[in-house]
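Small-conductance mechanosensitive channel, pasting as requested.
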Amino acid sequence: MDQPSLDQELAQLQSAYNLITEFLVQYSFQLIGALLIFLLGLWVASKAANFVANQFEKHNIDITLSNFTSNLVRIIIIIMVAVICLGKLGISVTPMVAAIGAASLGAGLALQGMLSNYAAGVTIIVTRPFVVGNTIEVKGASGVVTQIKLGLTILTNEEGEQISIPNKHIIGEILHNSFEYKLVETSLNIDYQADPGAVIAIIEQAISQSDKVNKNQPPLVGINGFNSIGMEVGIRYWVPTAHYFQTKYEINQFVILALKQANIHIPCPVREIQIQH
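Structure tokens follow.
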């Protein structure tokens, strides 16, 4: 390497060194102050988030709402501290805010569906039309709520299937919330010659054989209507969602055996066919 080239590189290194030294001398206190403010802000954000979470837990507020609120508080405090630190370093945040706003607008248009799910998730968490453990039905899907996320709500049914519903399909729709129980509705016909009071008592006794039926909402058994083959008996009772079909099939068996033992006739439609020669 020739001498002029070496002198040029040394001059560049000296220039860079002088620039860094000047920057550190001039802005060292600002850098230290900004770093201390940022670390203090992180500590305050953590303490504030923990305080909010503890208050929610103390008042037995839903854990989903607690997590969302505490994380939101932490993020807001960190953003405020970051703005203060940038100002401490002499960096104007106005152009950055404008750039972020423009980028956010473009991202919002591109991710409109995802953002609508997040907005619906915030609405669900704040208004709490249901909580984890409730049984809901919306747009033909039903199950027990296992998780409420910002983007979607996760259900599970008796078969162990996981059902994921985007939150935008929940807000604004007709929502059925039966909490931890689900209604069983069924009916059967009895002969017009049978004593309806005795039949109702037999069915109620058969239902009571199951310990899974909700005792806080007594079963409803009565004459639901009349048709050409007999009296229609309506049966309604509540069972835990997780054991819906198991309990329903068990009680159906209890009912049919009890009616047979009491010699209650269950009529069936009969069609007569005449063949003319």
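Note for the archive: Residues 3-58 form the longest helix (56 residues).
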